[in-house]
Amino acid sequence: MFRREKVFKPLTNSLLTGTLLTKRERDKWNIEEEDTPPPSELIGNLGSISALYLYTNTPPHGYGSQAPKVAETINRAYSYNLKRFSKVQKLEEFKVERMQWEKEDGPFPHNQIHGNFLAPELKSMAEKFLMLYQPIIDKCAEDTIQKAMYENADVLTKGRQTLDSLTDSSVTASVAFKRMHELYRNNLSIEATTCLEWVECFFRCLELPELKVSTSRKRTVDKRKYCRITKTYTKVPKTVKIPALMNIKEGNEIKAWMMKAATKFASYIKHKERGKLKRRAIASANMILRMFLHIIEEFHLELGKHIEGSTISIGGEEKKRKIISNLNTASLHASSLGVTLQGTEDATKWNEGLAPSAFAIMHKVFFDQETRERLNLPSPSEFGSIFSQIATRGNFLMALKTVQLGEGPISKTDLTYNRLSWDDDINRFNEQTKEWLKEILRRGIDDGYTPASPGMLMGMLNAGSTTLGLLPVNHLMNQYEEKVVTLRSSDDSMSVYIGISLAHTFQSIIDNRRNLGLIGINLSKDKSFFFKEGFGEFTSWYMDGDFTSQFGVETSSIRPQGKNPPDDHASIAKGTATALGTLTMNHLGATSRLKLGAMGVNRLWRIQKINNKREGVSSNVLLLSDGGRNLWNCCNCHLEESSLKEREAQTMEEKEYLLRVRNPNNPFSEEPEEEISYNKDLGGLQLTIAETPRTAFHYVKRSNRTVTTNIKRDMFLEEKSCAEVINIIKTVDPTTNVDFPNEATRISKHLFSILHVERAGHDLSESEESLFFKAMDILKNGIVENDDDEAPSDIDRMETL
């Protein structure tokens, strides 16, 4: 028996027939017109845009061990060193890959993908760049170092996951910073540090006679496991980390330990990356090296605002203006004529090809006294010399870097499975793993870390690499016959090539590619495209003649905040109203954003629209968070939602519904918090409270932070105490709401002086006076606890290695 064939009726394209064709044209060409719109389940979702549109559904999520991806990147970087002789230089227990090409290595590999560079040519490029931008370079170095002298080192806590070198674990940036700060405090007796002092602490630790480190060590313990089949318990060995205190007393051992701690990277799989078939590996530096990278990037980000061709520091309309103005200045010396081509360029494996030593040469040349004397340039300032030392030493640490390999693969049999470690017999791994593991094992694995000397792996120093990539522009080119104008933002670039003839223009393309190859940048022959002037793409900015616009497809601004449904809906509406007020969005875009934003919030919180959900309450009165209708449009999105709903309430049931959900005494929501902010119009601080009235749907999310150990319990209590301390500080000194303290003075002394001054203007009762002096005594001397009540400290609980 055959199944009945189902015939699908094609849906008429409502856009074409309804907007582009007149009735006469539809009748002439016999085009049918639907009397009713298509079913809402077919068109009421983002999938109606395109089933193949990459940004419609949830992004891909990486899974499994990152080891194959990490090994792929590292092995590729090592393979790009095409030197024949003296490939490795040994420095004590470290091995540095030598990427500079020398005469004995033979002809330079221009036509091969490589990571090598010619040091004399790179030096010459940097000197020409210095002659062109010397005043700007000196000013940027001065601004960077002056900022580092007063900026708090806790700027490093802005990151998310990062490596804690003390315990070799991936933790939040604030936890890693706290542990490294405790190391400096316990060994150097420092309390607070600026960015520059943070760097100084690292070098001071290298010279200590003894170093105390709060670390962790692994221990195997027996855990009970219940078997449901036999209904018995069995002992299963499990490896756990326990806190420990390590004392290092030998000078060489201290130096070796600190250098290892400063060169470690944690590795991860990159999530939420669309348009890529395979996942990639990313890395996060430790808290020591992050400060070096932070200062170097600050310099290059500031430099990028002033030099031609760099757009790494800017965005929006400012970036658009720089793109247009830089490309419009493209002309030959002493001639306005010429043949012009425009290239949209792609660099092959940008990060793996750049050598840390190439960055060091660039930073050395910029502030070298002998170089400046030879070029008749002013001597570098003290700020420039300090920056040069920080930059070159940071580049040296990058050349010694090691990357966390990650967990081993899972091996299984018919009866059981276990996770392999990297020092197991290589024959236990499959053939695909053996290919890359042999290369990794040849270079060695030390406590889960593998050397990764060559390359700026996984996107380190994006702004610095932008400056480096601009050095070769017009190097050794006769600019009366050919010229190149380049826009660059890290690995993305677009260039205009000009020549007095078509042959000279083609030659300028070849020369520019060779110049980039001299410092380890490999322009792809397959992915670089050359068009007529005025046509190209650069960082999602597309040019077509005089028209330049961004065609980015990311819409992160309408992503729900994740606080609670009403606040998420309100943030979408408020953001849309702001965009309309600043003329960054028209009314059609505002309407689309409101619809898409509300749909996104409903999906996140699983809010379903159910007919007759509340008896006697229409969908116009039901709150959005309760599955109601969205009443916001481009003209009223500046208004509060429940007030709009109140205008639609007609019956007593609807009015009582709004009274119930807006009852301020409901047990589901918190009291709105007061916030102190700086108002430009008033020229001072003002106290603000959330404008959105609290409803029963402003519920508090349950925390998923499970307290499983005493250490976690102590950490959560400490975080809670610190939050209360910050509230006290903001209350006593309201200026801290606007500007963070940036001096090394203890905050207790600061509060003591403020309260001492404020006390003079108030009359206190006897009880208030007693309470005031008690608070002042605590600020001056701290809280004195009884010996019986004193809890053991973290160090007392630690085992001594």
Structural topology:
Elements: H1 14-20, H2 23-28, H3 40-43, H4 67-79, E1 88-91, E2 94-97, H5 119-150, E3 161-164, E4 169-172, H6 173-188, H7 195-206, E5 211-227, E6 232-248, H8 251-262, E7 264-269, E8 281-285, H9 287-304, H10 316-328, E9 339-346, H11 350-353, H12 356-366, H13 369-374, H14 382-399, E10 402-404, E11 410-412, E12 417-419, H15 431-443, E13 449-451, H16 462-470, E14 482-489, E15 492-499, H17 502-517, E16 529-532, E17 535-538, E18 541-544, E19 547-550, H18 565-581, H19 587-604, H20 641-648, H21 652-661, E20 674-679, E21 684-689, H22 710-732, H23 747-759, H24 766-781, H25 794-797, E22 799-800
Parallel strand pairs: 6-22, 7-10
Antiparallel strand pairs: 1-2, 3-4, 5-6, 7-8, 9-15, 9-16, 10-13, 11-12, 14-15, 17-18, 18-19, 20-21
Helix pairs in contact: 4-15, 5-9, 5-12, 5-14, 7-9, 9-14, 9-16, 12-14, 18-19
List keywords for this structure.
single chain, about 800 residues, alpha+beta, 4-stranded mixed beta sheet, 4-stranded antiparallel beta sheet, globular, disordered C terminus
Verbal overview:
Among the domains are: 313 residues, no CATH class; 38 residues, no CATH class; 134 residues, no CATH class; 75 residues, no CATH class. The termini are far apart. The chain is built from 25 helices and 22 strands. It has a four-stranded mixed β-sheet. Strands 14-15-9-16 form a four-stranded antiparallel β-sheet. A three-stranded mixed β-sheet has the order 5-6-22. 40% of the residues lie in helices and 16% in strands. Helix 5 packs across helix 9 and helix 5 crosses helix 12. The protein is α+β, with helices and mostly antiparallel strands and 801 residues long. It catalyses: RNA(n) + a ribonucleoside 5'-triphosphate = RNA(n+1) + diphosphate. This is RNA-directed RNA polymerase catalytic subunit. Its EC number is 2.7.7.48.
